[in-house]
Request: fold
Amino acid sequence: MQLSIIHPKKGWIGILFVLLYTLSNVYAQGGSPSDYTSISVKEATLAEILKMIDNQTSYAVAYSNDVAQLEKKVTLTISNTSVPEILRTLAGLFPIDYDVSNKLISVKAKVVRKEDQASVKGRVVDVHGEPLVGVNIIVKGTSIGTITDVDGAFRLESVPADGVLVISFVGMQPQEVSVNNRTDFQITLEEDAAMMDEVVVTALNLTREQKALGYSVTKVSGDDVTQTVSGNWLNNISGKVAGLFTAQAGSGPSGSLRVTLRGDHSLNYGKNEALFVVDGVPISSGITATNTVSNYAQGDAPVDFGNGASDINPEDIESVSVLKGAAAAALYGSRAGNGAIIITTKSGRKNKGLGVTVSSTVSFEKAGFFPDFQTEYGNGSDVGMREYALWDVSANAAADGVAVPRNYSRYTFGEKFDASKTRYLYASKDWATGKYTKLPWTYKDDWYSGLFQTGVTTDNTVTVTGNNGAGTSTRFSATSYTNKWILPNTGFDKQTVSLAVTTPVTDKIKLSTKINYYHKKSDNMPSGGYDESNPMYALVWGFNVNSINDWKNEYFQGRYNYRNWSAQGENGQGLVYPSMAGFNPYRTLYEALSTQDRDRVFGNIGLSFDLAKGLTLDLRSALDWYDEFRTQRRPFYTTDYVNGFYREQTVRQMENNNDFMLRYSSPKLADNRLSISAMFGGNNRVEEYYNYKITLDQLGEEGIYHTKNLPTGVIPGLTNSRSKKVVNSFYGMTSLNWTDMYYLDITARNDWTSTLAPGNWSYLYLSAAGSVLLDEVLDLHSTSPWVDMLKARVSWANVGNDTDAYSLDQYYSSTAYPGGSTLPGNVPNPLIEPENVESWEAGLEGKFFQNRVALDLAVYHSSATNQIFNINLDQITGATGLTINAGEIRNQGVEVAATFVPVKTRNLTWSFDVNWSKNKNTLVSVQDGWDPAVPLRTNMGTTIGDRVFVNSYLGEQMHIIYGKGFKRAPEGATYVDENGRTINASGMHLVDADGYPVLDDQPDRRIGKVTPDWRGGMVQRVRYKNLSLTATFTAQMGGHAYSVTNFALSYQGKLKNSLEGRYDGLVHPGVNAITNTDGSVAYTKNTTVTNSIQTYYNSMMWGRDNAEMNTFSTSFLKMREVRLDYQVPAWLCSRAGILQKVSVGAFATNLFCITKFPQFDPETGMLNGSNIQQGIESMAFPMTRTYGFNVQFSF
Amino acid sequence: MNTIKVFFMAGLLAAVVFGCTTDFEEINKNPNSTVVNDIRASGMFEPLLYDGANAWLNYTWFWNDELVQFTAFTGGVTRQEHRYSIADANWQSTWNMYAGYANDAAHMYDLAVEQDDKSLQAIAITLKVLHMANLTDMYGDIPYAEAFQIRTPGGTTTPMFDSQKQVYDEMFADLEAANALYATGPLFAKPSLDGMYGGDMAKWRKFNNSLYLRLLCRVSGRAEMGVGARMTAMLNDAGRYPVFASNEDNATVKFSGNDPYRNRFALTTEGEFTSSGRKLAQQLIKMTVVTDVGGKQVYEDPRLAIIGKKNPNNTAGIWKGTVSGVTLEAQSAADAGTSWLNTAVFCRATAPSYLMDYAEVQFILAEAALKGYIAGGEAAAQGYYTKAITASLEKWGGQGQFSATPVTVTAENIATFLESALASWDGATNKEELIGNQKYLALFWVGMEAYHEYRRTGYPVLTIGAGTLNNHVLPTRFSYPVTTMATNGGHAQEALDRMGGPNTMTTPVWWSKQAISGK
Reply:
């Protein structure tokens, strides 16, 4: 048999061959045609000639497929010649071998002799020089072919010297390359301009063609999230996706981010974050709080230990799909109302072989964007009237024999600097002799910035990918990340290991699994917030007459001790800040430790059954489990914790998802115009949560931190809570495709949740999404050839939502008293119904000018109603809250995303992406009977000691900053100027008799809105040969935030904004109001010089009560990131031996930030329990610039 | 590949795992907490007593002392209560505090009725009235009859406001009812829970009736309340209306010092408590120190060295008070060298909380006798006054041991004090003012009582600082908080109309001197 020469993929030809063989034998035995024949053909192929022989003679002819494909045509006349003779002639004309046996002629392509064939190799890359994996390469006219490996490389044996290589890859323009005796090829494929069959990963991990989708999906490639190292990879998608909004609190090395899509929908502020899904399975992404308190004046202020989504190793991310609207995410059910971030991790290689990639990054982080310090005046609170002295220096302790009484202040309204003056500073004391020496009265440059060091982060990853050629592919990666942060003794390490395996069980069953293990450990995460426990507090309240070394020496030389701290008649004489509320930033950093040790495993294992043609069944079980152990310490003599503090907290969270999914794709129906695919599935989700906390707010023995170190009679605070929730679901989807021009998706999902009562616990929701390819329908390809693609889409979705476990019954609040209870503040409603989010989206997507311009527009409207929230009640009713279904929040917005490629040549490409989005959220209604004149403090009721509020009013855009501002002359007020002219005084500041502006009585002035009008981002890319330059910019306009750092520094006189008028005063622009005897008010222009310029700045202008002055626009333009990459040419790599690919890069972040927001980062907020709340900056850490290098090599 | 098997598996999985809701109600049972109504009434008692007592301590330190010029926070500008910088959040927290404890007391009453525990029924009423009285005294008209109905089926979430007169009538009725319950001689089931009276129901009864006297005194300016007759009836039937007979009967919550039975200031440092903020005010120093014509401090109230501490940085070594409501410019000078609260006395785990003292009862009777509400006239008034002063000095004398330099108050000291220019009955031209002033001092560290009494009597005569807000008016009440106005605005507005003013801190409450006199 000669079947062996037939390509195994062409099985049907083999069958044909056997059939032919059998039939011809039958025929041969049935008659006796002559062994001689005549042939006369014009421009005939070999196959045609062989068929004639078969027909005209008693011989049967079989030939292989490659013979059939020989395209050579000949003109031939042979008369009455024997078949073997004819075959000899043909063998001279065509490259064939033949065999005649028992009247069966078998013909095959000639085995090419060594000298006519060669082994060729090469590499296929895209225009960016990135290797293309899985590219098809075949030798034209033959069955010789292969696909490229993970490095884009290929190797082919036995390629004819005159052959032609055909290179094809989905989404790329195919290429043909003549061999011409060459053996090494570097092939660059270009994107297919008219290519529209882009695929994206959508809900439930379904891969879909983008053109078929009726909703907005934005894809971010894995490279975009890995290339720049950050404490939280989510930073790297910020600004790259229209409609995606991140909020941060400048809260430390982990840098937790709050990610929302298309605005906040829920009145429960903590329930607005996007759902994170890894490989089709939701994971927990939020923050677990150490304590549910805000970040203002709290000794037990929250520590940012990182949010769950940041645990994903960016090196393992293949791509990120952002499903912004509810329609996109509707299949995820309850949790999808806020949209979803779908992360697909990398898999093993597609073809046989082994690949190893090593990637290393080192980056250096520097604190920057420091406040605008004044350097002219030193510490003091008496406008320099008296000589500054930190010490009470008696005559015999003074080097000069003159006694000086203590007169110090942390305020900086003291004497003007003058190096010729000398004063008693902290460093004046000789601790060995107890003598004091006066030192020059000068500004110390490092008093603030000296605390910061250069942070160093290293990130090393080794990835091994393999494929055994029998369908089993694996990927294994291990990452080690270390971070030393910008503050001494802070930072964290993490290690991740991930494994992905896909293997066939039988030819119809495939098993795949992805498992990730993550470990994060920190010996100290800094405490944030406006509190003594934050090292920033020490700086802000520090002394510009002291070097930072004073604090360093105090701590490291053991001088922050009981003796120097305690009053002893001198009120804590011995400390840099001599107070019982004293602190030392080094002591805070080295002893007030917050440690973290977190283990997490998440992954899934699944079986895929190929049941029948078009029908598959997937079974999958997924687990996300973590266990975290934290400790927090405060040493003795710490503000709020004189006798120390210690806490241990264990958090364990488990989410288990079990799914089945049956999928069916129909063949083409209705004359190939219609195709249908349908999916039906089920999900069982179990969530369990444990949080055990033991808090000692005083310790028995100093310096010992464990839970048994308690003073007599003190019991530790215990908080134990566990919860369990189960949701079972069925879901289904039908997708219709009519003539590849009209698409329609319909989904349905029904959830049954354990958190609602019978009768309410089952709820159904639906979505529909349709799209039309206008370019095809309107035939734009012929009328407007510059249009490559134009799609219109519209979608609608209705998503239900349940509530937390144990929300139906009333439970007592527990107390520390044995068996003691108090009534809970909130009265739940056992008959609460599921929430509802209904949303619409319409969009237009287009690609133009050979893919040089791409545009995606979206408008949307969503309305979240029937919200489950706790309405405010008057305590006199018996509770402060009542859970009801009420309220509506509406979000409306526009998103624009575009890509431009102005230059595209073989060596040079310039392209850029821009995105812009605007969202407006409105509080449409709350509970019945709510007085609209009264603000609703939603869960985002941030306040600064009841001075500044973020409120929302009915019928208005949400999240407005309220507080005190300047009292102003009413509309229509006038005054008469010195020339006798009447001047309009409406809105001018009222100034009192001491020359001070007057503040509002109540903090109810509308100061500014928190949410920006719009946000935008831009990525610029320039590639020249192997060199590429990328720059990312982000901007926002129209938001505001109150700055605690600003009031704290300004009202102490530490910034330039309090220099004017020192100390001779100034005239505040405004009017004086004089009430006449008849009650009318007359206005005169203020000419009074401020009574005291210190009071003016300290109490009126920059005091914390003045929300108007301390609130700033958060509009900004940032150069978020710039990077330069160089890909070492392949020829250079190959010279280095086994290396296949080497690339090196350098990057920098935050090179500039243009903003009016004065103190650090305009993208600011405060950590409040487990939420990041915007609108108030609460002593954030400085914004940093990072400079880094990375190198990646593969072999 | 057996397709049927797969379908069977999938179907089974679907049916068993995905569609099942049978154990949902079990899953949704909270393993962490107790369902409301599933406890003994005594489970409400300790938090109500101890936390309530600590809340009183906090309020006396934070609000009362600043408003009536015992102290003033002049150590900075973070707190400005002495300037009447009081905002909605304060109104809200104060409202919620009193209403919250009253609510817990009302719930304890309901549980005690269900469980037929008469002792806790009676105590619940006494404590509820204690907190509700403060609520009405702080705000004026409040819901009383329709309060706390949220857990009752069909209960209102927008309760009617009762006029303050109605509220007082209702409180009197409640106290009468409690007195009747006490009269049945119920036993306190777990005496060890009771950190005030150790389960001695007779003392609880005295507290109930002393509280009754306090509230009668509060509305004594309103003739329609018939206070004289009611007081007289009580005094004439002491068997039925026993009241405090000595300091032994004082409503004093004692803390063992063991967690959680600790005074809320146990861990507060001197800086937080006083030295970097709240200093003794001039008013207090003026009323407790005798200064000679040369400006030398020649005599002081024996209690002063117990409740106060001279500032060690005061080079003159004298008592100095800071200026309440001082202007920002004058603040620094006013604050320098000013005396402190005595941290050693107040910031102890075992420092007690005073809800009501025997001394107050005697002051009430002194005033009542002086004004002729009860029999005895001025002579009787002086007798009551002397007992009141003695009781107050003895009470503080008991705390003197905790001062850094221990202070004792002897009978001789008391006698001297009663003869001194500060407290001499005979030396006082205005006896009513003398009683008012000394009652004010005796009410130091007793909740908000001094503030309430100042508004009722106008004593002591306070100097309103030039730096004050609220139109330089010492707040006549706290405004109804935002939640009240937002959720029950209609009823609240009716109450304001009845009170005759806007929802501000200048509208007087019904029993106040200002409301009665119209000035």
